[in-house]
Automatic annotation (TrEMBL):
Pfam families in UniProt: Aldedh
UniProt GO MF annotations: aldehyde dehydrogenase [NAD(P)+] activity; succinate-semialdehyde dehydrogenase (NAD+) activity
Keywords: NADP, Oxidoreductase
Organism: Streptomyces sporangiiformans
Name recorded for this polypeptide: NADP-dependent succinic semialdehyde dehydrogenase
Keyword Oxidoreductase belongs to the record: yes
Family membership: Belongs to the aldehyde dehydrogenase family.
Top-level taxonomic group: Bacteria
């Protein structure tokens, strides 16, 4: 895949970039190792000062960087600006809290004494250069939610971004440079996927994090496992959205539309499978379908646009194949299931009912504005349908029954359970999944500790 900016709203190639050669990759790896030797000893106050400065610059650049993201991957411009604001918020959150989150932990005196020590501490130390392999769908946020905690912990970053968002990738390197981070602390590697293994196997790279597809995660995890290097993986998701009879159906349906089409449906944590109790199925389906049909699809630079183009022609073709397979196998189209007229990689917001386990869409992630509706007879069937997926990233549950809330929180196989609301990441709370959605956690204190050497410091009596 070429490293290029291709506007998905019209298919026009705007900029192309040459991949880094072996000599430049080596120079950057050496720079990362050199930077780490000194940056690891900087104070939390100094790191926080630099990260706050980066957040300030990001906010100053909000309009320009939002337009770059929209041009590169088609995100509606309002959502692009919101992504910039969210990134700045996360940077400040970690700048203000990292020292506390990584403070030394002193063991109880009784336990220290039992081990023959006068004192025992647990200390969090940085690992070194961390390789981040990041996707195009949230081209700023996915990187910042890794970079902010990693830099505050004293690590340095090497970014291999998706090949269709090179301008965003280069902007990020420039952002941290302008903020005053030492040379080599954060570098963008304009390389193809074929070079990831070489970089990851380099002894100077100590760990890796990847957000992306399951095949990409398997490839990185395999290499990292062979090299015995720590990884965090956030892969695909096919999140359930369960609606029970006690729910506020109007609110659940309105929120469901946003939960399905955020980022034009190209989000791992977007709700994709809508599992509705039979007693309220018809009422929910009617409201939900009407909401999906009413969405404005169009130019992502238009302030009123709610659904933009898919990021690539291949992405649209893959989505169409899932829909066509479901329809051929008996799914009912309640709306959409077609390409709008005109240029660009658009696909109409789509709702499919009568989805069954033999359809590909039941097992595979629909990465676009396509929703699958299921009818559940009771709570047990709702949980069974929700868990009948290879993925387990997050989940959404709508009910006013506290006993049902407890059951869903206990039994849903997912990294998150959002009750009477839609899944959304926040720097204060851990984010990640189970099953084929990956392992490890990002954000919160859990996320910043993922790339730390958790060190026991034992003092003799």
């Amino acid at each position: 895949m070429p490293i290029a900016t291709v506007n998905p709203a019209n298919g026009e190639t705007l900029k192309t970039y040459d991949a880094l050669g072996a000599e430049e990759i080596e120079r950057r790896l050496a720079a990362a190792e050199t930077a780490f030797r000194t940056y690891r000893t900087t104070s939390f106050a100094e790191r926080a000062r630099l990260l706050h400065r980066a957040a300030d610059l990001l906010e100053e650049d909000q309009q320009d960087v939002a337009r770059v993201m929209t041009t590169e991957m088609g995100k509606p411009i309002k959502q692009a600006r919101a992504e910039v604001a969210k990134c700045a918020k996360a940077m400040r959150w970690y700048a203000d809290r990292a020292e506390e989150l990584l403070a030394d932990e002193e063991s109880a005196q009784s336990e220290a004494k039992d081990s023959g020590a006068s004192r025992v501490l647990v200390r969090y130390r940085p690992l070194g250069p961390v390789l981040a392999v990041m996707p195009w769908n949230f081209p700023l946020w996915q990187v910042i939610r890794f970079a902010a905690p990693a830099l505050m912990a004293g690590n340095v970053g090497l970014l291999k971004h998706a090949s269709n968002v090179p301008q965003t990738a280069l902007y990020l390197e420039d952002l941290f440079h302008r903020a005053g981070f030492p040379e080599g602390c954060f570098q963008t590697l304009l390389i193809g996927s074929g070079e990831v293994e070489t970089v990851l196997r380099d002894g100077r790279v100590r760990a890796a994090t990847l957000t992306g597809s399951e095949p990409a995660g398997r490839a990185v995890a395999s290499v990292a496992g062979d090299e015995v290097k720590k990884t965090v993986l956030e892969l695909g998701g096919s999140d359930p959205y369960v609606v029970m009879p006690s729910a506020d159906i109007d609110r659940a349906a309105r929120t469901a539309v946003t939960a399905r089409v955020q980022n034009t449906g190209q989000s791992c944590i977007a709700a994709k499978r809508f599992i509705v109790h039979t007693d309220v199925f018809d009422a929910f389906a009617e409201r939900f379908t009407a909401g999906m049909e009413a969405l404005k699809v169009g130019d992502p630079m238009d302030e009123e646009t709610e659904v933009g183009p898919l990021s690539s022609e291949r992405g649209r073709s893959d989505l169409e194949e899932l829909v066509d397979d479901a329809v051929e196998a008996g799914a009912t189209v309640l709306c959409g299931a077609e390409r709008p007229e005109g240029s660009g990689w658009y696909y109409a917001p789509t709702v499919l009912a009568d989805v069954t386990p033999d359809m590909r869409i039941h097992r595979e992630e629909a990465f676009g504005p396509v929703a699958a509706l299921y009818r559940a007879a009771d709570l047990e069937e709702a949980i069974a349908i929700a868990n009948d997926s290879p993925f387990g990233l997050s989940s959404n549950v709508w009910t006013r029954d506290e006993d049902e809330v407890d059951r869903f929180a206990r039994d849903l196989e997912a990294g998150g359970v959002y009750v009477n609301g839609m899944t959304a990441s926040h720097p204060a709370f851990p984010f990640g999944g189970v099953k084929r959605s990956g392992y490890g956690r990002e954000l919160s204190g859990h996320g910043i500790r993922e790339f730390c050497n958790i060190t026991t410091v034992w003092h003799g009596a």
